[in-house]
Amino acid sequence: RSFSGLFAGCELTASTKSYTFQVDEEDDSDHILALSVVCLTDGAKDECNVVEVVGRNHENQEIAVPVANLKLSCQPLLSLDNFKLQPPVTFRLAAGSGPVHLTGWHRIMHREDVSFEDDDDLSEEEEEEQELAPIMPAKK
Known about the structure:
Elements: E1 2-12, E2 18-21, E3 30-40, E4 49-56, E5 62-70, E6 77-85, E7 89-95, E8 100-109, H1 124-132
Antiparallel strand pairs: 1-8, 2-7, 3-6, 3-8, 4-5, 4-7
């Protein structure tokens, strides 16, 4: 089962240059943050505003990747088509003074096994398909 909710977003400005999205370390669910839109908002100057995503690689080293370069006169908004990230992730205004607003989706995928009877979200057709799926023995 999974749950998707709107990521209320964050705003990066000259005084608040970064925002970190993180989840509780005790939570054993899989979390995905999907960025949909990055845009300049009221009060933005006509300057380059570079937004970076800061994460960690498999060696736990910090990596910063620019995802948007916005300018009021030529590109005030960028659609990122649900660019998927794994929390914790930090959004940073690397250049410019903003304000830049980011929005997206937060999806939580629960790992525990849930019986079909407990899942009210499934339609009857989906339930039948799941109940009819054969369980294959493991190949040795």
